[in-house]
Amino acid sequence: MNVLLSGGPGHGQVVETAGGETLLWRACLYERTGETGRARREEMRVYAHRQDCCEPYGRGAEDGCE
Predict the structure, then answer these.
(1) Which top-rank group of organisms is this from (predicted)?
(2) Contact 43, 54 (CB under 8 A)
């Protein structure tokens, strides 16, 4: 399923996911919201950026911040 990223370095990107509660995009964590957004002429779920879990902040997948 395609989802829309909101906030952070991936803002506006459409990515494919299995539909879990979180996804990792370029060492930044995004969490599923209850919102939907429109991109590529279709409605899709929105995943919001978690600023405290992103590589530029010294965090990422390697420290288990989720």
Answers:
(1) Bacteria
(2) no
